Amino acid sequence: MNSVISINNLSKVYTGGHKALSDVSLDIRSGEILALLGPNGAGKTTLISIICGIVKPSEGSVTVNGHDILSEYRITRSLIGLVPQELTLGMFDTVWNTICFSRGLFGKKPDAGYLEKVLKDLSLWDKKDNAIMTLSGGMKRRVLIAKALSHEPSILFLDEPTAGVDVKLRKDMWELVESLRASGVTIILTTHYIEEAEAIADRVGVIDKGRLLVVDDKDALKHKLGKRQLCIELENAIESVPQELSSWNLELADDGNQIIYTYDTYSEDTGVAGLMRAIDKSSLDLKDITTSQSSLEDIFINLVETQ
Question: What is the DSSP track for 91-135?
Fold first, then answer.
């Protein structure tokens, strides 16, 4: 798959010495959904702001569809739609005038049919003549998305798009993101909601302290860095793991009512079969057995905490 955005050795040092980005390199594929995860202050917004031409990099380069973001700013910016974290809207203007004005800023000819479709997709059509100030917070966030899509960009950045919105609206936005990707739009989103990345992203990148720690396909990331656990619930609590089971490096949980075995599903010998045989020969009475796979949230927390 072709790269629509190429980021090479990108760094940003703000006045005062704060290093917001450190030697970040990343290729973003055409037509994919890439989720960038990271705690507050990790550098996610700085990275987006540089690509969109809002902030100048200290070092490195970025190209969008082969065009340099600095020397060919007008071309690269016209290819990008940006939904910022903060509400940046004229409160006294109407929804319709807001998106028409935004389309005009990019030199696009009027297209009422296209803008009508955008508003309908965002469930805003019945609000088109309403002043922005009369809308709810969730509706205002939808207007930001409509504004970002008004000039028909091929790349869409969503910086914390569902922050502060209800569960239903969040799911509606996920469906919109999927439909945009189906139409060929490349989507990059930052989020604090791990389930958001897990639900809609093709690839996931983790940023912390200005460094890109990892980026990979969502499922591959879980396979590489995730763990699988076998949870054995006991009929009677025990104070310690029996000596005959010591070679499996088991953990006691739930006040001695559970034994936890962590293993790699891709290992030639997971050890599960041998463990179950050993337990069968032991004096332990089993109540239930369950397994679980590490989530992206587990992986994210582990990556950030070990840096």
Answer: TTSBHHHHHHHHHHHTTPPP-HHHHHHHHHHTT-GGGTTSBGGGS
